[in-house]
Write a structure and sequence with these properties.
Elements (H helix, E strand, L loop, with lengths): L1 E8 L6 E4 L1 H6 L9 E8 L4 E7 L3 H14 L16 H11 L2 E7 L2 E2 L5 E7 L8 E8 L1
Antiparallel strand pairs: 1-8, 2-7, 3-5, 3-8, 4-7, 5-6
Length: 140
Protein backbone atom coordinates (compact mmCIF):
# COMPACT_ATOMS: atom_id res chain seq x y z
CA UNK A 1 0.00 0.00 0.00
CA UNK A 2 1.20 3.51 -0.85
CA UNK A 3 0.62 6.56 1.36
CA UNK A 4 1.15 10.16 0.32
CA UNK A 5 0.40 13.37 2.16
CA UNK A 6 1.01 16.99 1.27
CA UNK A 7 -0.25 20.46 2.02
CA UNK A 8 -1.78 22.65 -0.67
CA UNK A 9 -2.25 26.39 -0.27
CA UNK A 10 -5.15 27.63 -2.33
CA UNK A 11 -5.15 31.19 -3.65
CA UNK A 12 -7.58 33.56 -1.93
CA UNK A 13 -11.16 33.14 -3.11
CA UNK A 14 -14.02 35.55 -2.63
CA UNK A 15 -16.89 34.56 -0.37
CA UNK A 16 -18.93 31.79 -1.96
CA UNK A 17 -18.69 28.23 -3.20
CA UNK A 18 -15.84 27.39 -5.58
CA UNK A 19 -14.94 24.20 -7.44
CA UNK A 20 -11.36 23.25 -6.57
CA UNK A 21 -11.21 19.70 -7.97
CA UNK A 22 -8.71 20.51 -10.72
CA UNK A 23 -6.50 22.45 -8.30
CA UNK A 24 -6.32 19.39 -6.04
CA UNK A 25 -5.71 16.89 -8.86
CA UNK A 26 -2.99 19.08 -10.40
CA UNK A 27 -1.18 19.17 -7.04
CA UNK A 28 -1.17 15.35 -6.76
CA UNK A 29 1.06 13.75 -9.42
CA UNK A 30 1.19 10.58 -7.29
CA UNK A 31 -2.56 10.08 -7.85
CA UNK A 32 -1.79 8.36 -11.17
CA UNK A 33 0.17 5.63 -9.35
CA UNK A 34 -2.85 4.44 -7.35
CA UNK A 35 -5.12 1.86 -8.98
CA UNK A 36 -7.53 1.56 -6.06
CA UNK A 37 -7.52 3.81 -3.03
CA UNK A 38 -8.85 6.91 -1.33
CA UNK A 39 -8.24 10.65 -1.25
CA UNK A 40 -9.00 12.64 1.86
CA UNK A 41 -8.97 16.44 1.76
CA UNK A 42 -8.95 18.35 5.06
CA UNK A 43 -9.11 22.13 5.41
CA UNK A 44 -7.07 23.68 8.25
CA UNK A 45 -9.47 26.53 9.00
CA UNK A 46 -12.54 27.22 11.13
CA UNK A 47 -14.25 29.70 8.82
CA UNK A 48 -14.26 27.75 5.54
CA UNK A 49 -15.39 24.25 4.67
CA UNK A 50 -15.40 21.55 2.01
CA UNK A 51 -18.16 19.61 0.31
CA UNK A 52 -18.90 17.70 -2.88
CA UNK A 53 -21.72 18.73 -5.17
CA UNK A 54 -22.77 19.88 -8.67
CA UNK A 55 -19.82 20.78 -10.89
CA UNK A 56 -21.58 22.07 -14.00
CA UNK A 57 -24.25 24.68 -13.29
CA UNK A 58 -22.83 27.72 -11.43
CA UNK A 59 -26.29 28.65 -10.14
CA UNK A 60 -26.06 25.68 -7.75
CA UNK A 61 -23.08 27.33 -6.06
CA UNK A 62 -24.90 30.67 -5.99
CA UNK A 63 -27.94 29.00 -4.40
CA UNK A 64 -25.73 27.35 -1.77
CA UNK A 65 -24.37 30.76 -0.78
CA UNK A 66 -27.84 32.33 -0.72
CA UNK A 67 -29.32 29.53 1.37
CA UNK A 68 -26.46 29.45 3.87
CA UNK A 69 -26.80 33.21 4.37
CA UNK A 70 -30.50 32.82 5.17
CA UNK A 71 -29.92 29.79 7.38
CA UNK A 72 -26.98 31.41 9.23
CA UNK A 73 -27.43 35.19 9.01
CA UNK A 74 -24.93 37.84 9.94
CA UNK A 75 -25.52 40.24 12.82
CA UNK A 76 -27.73 37.92 14.88
CA UNK A 77 -28.37 39.64 18.20
CA UNK A 78 -27.26 36.60 20.20
CA UNK A 79 -23.75 36.33 18.64
CA UNK A 80 -21.03 37.15 21.13
CA UNK A 81 -18.04 36.20 18.98
CA UNK A 82 -17.71 39.06 16.50
CA UNK A 83 -14.10 40.14 16.97
CA UNK A 84 -13.30 39.95 13.27
CA UNK A 85 -16.52 41.41 11.86
CA UNK A 86 -20.11 40.50 11.18
CA UNK A 87 -19.15 37.49 9.04
CA UNK A 88 -16.95 35.98 11.78
CA UNK A 89 -19.35 33.86 13.85
CA UNK A 90 -21.57 32.92 10.90
CA UNK A 91 -18.44 31.63 9.13
CA UNK A 92 -17.63 29.35 12.07
CA UNK A 93 -21.18 27.98 12.17
CA UNK A 94 -21.25 27.40 8.41
CA UNK A 95 -17.91 25.60 8.59
CA UNK A 96 -19.22 23.23 11.26
CA UNK A 97 -22.45 22.62 9.33
CA UNK A 98 -20.72 21.93 6.01
CA UNK A 99 -17.71 20.03 7.36
CA UNK A 100 -13.95 20.30 7.08
CA UNK A 101 -13.11 17.18 5.08
CA UNK A 102 -14.21 15.10 2.12
CA UNK A 103 -13.24 11.64 0.90
CA UNK A 104 -13.21 10.49 -2.71
CA UNK A 105 -12.41 7.01 -4.06
CA UNK A 106 -9.45 6.68 -6.41
CA UNK A 107 -9.87 4.26 -9.30
CA UNK A 108 -7.26 3.63 -12.00
CA UNK A 109 -5.24 6.73 -11.10
CA UNK A 110 -8.15 9.19 -11.10
CA UNK A 111 -10.76 10.53 -8.69
CA UNK A 112 -13.89 8.40 -9.00
CA UNK A 113 -16.40 11.23 -8.74
CA UNK A 114 -19.81 11.16 -10.36
CA UNK A 115 -20.09 12.91 -13.73
CA UNK A 116 -21.70 16.00 -12.15
CA UNK A 117 -19.63 16.08 -8.93
CA UNK A 118 -16.84 18.43 -7.93
CA UNK A 119 -15.02 19.30 -4.72
CA UNK A 120 -16.02 22.71 -3.37
CA UNK A 121 -14.15 25.18 -1.24
CA UNK A 122 -16.91 26.86 0.76
CA UNK A 123 -15.47 30.26 1.60
CA UNK A 124 -17.51 31.83 4.38
CA UNK A 125 -15.47 35.00 5.00
CA UNK A 126 -15.68 38.27 3.10
CA UNK A 127 -11.91 38.81 3.03
CA UNK A 128 -10.11 35.51 3.54
CA UNK A 129 -6.56 34.71 2.59
CA UNK A 130 -5.30 31.56 0.92
CA UNK A 131 -6.65 28.41 2.54
CA UNK A 132 -4.47 25.45 3.54
CA UNK A 133 -5.54 21.92 2.67
CA UNK A 134 -3.97 18.67 3.81
CA UNK A 135 -4.43 16.05 1.13
CA UNK A 136 -3.83 12.40 1.92
CA UNK A 137 -3.88 9.66 -0.70
CA UNK A 138 -3.49 6.00 -0.06
CA UNK A 139 -4.01 2.79 -1.96
CA UNK A 140 -2.33 0.32 -4.22
Amino acid sequence: MKFYQSEIILPPYKRGFHIITAHIVNALPELKSIDIGMLQVFIKHTSASLTINENADPTVRMDFESHMNVMVPENASYYQHDYEGSDDMPAHIKSSLMGVSVQVPITNGALNLGIWQGIYLCEHRNHAGGRKLVVSTFGQ
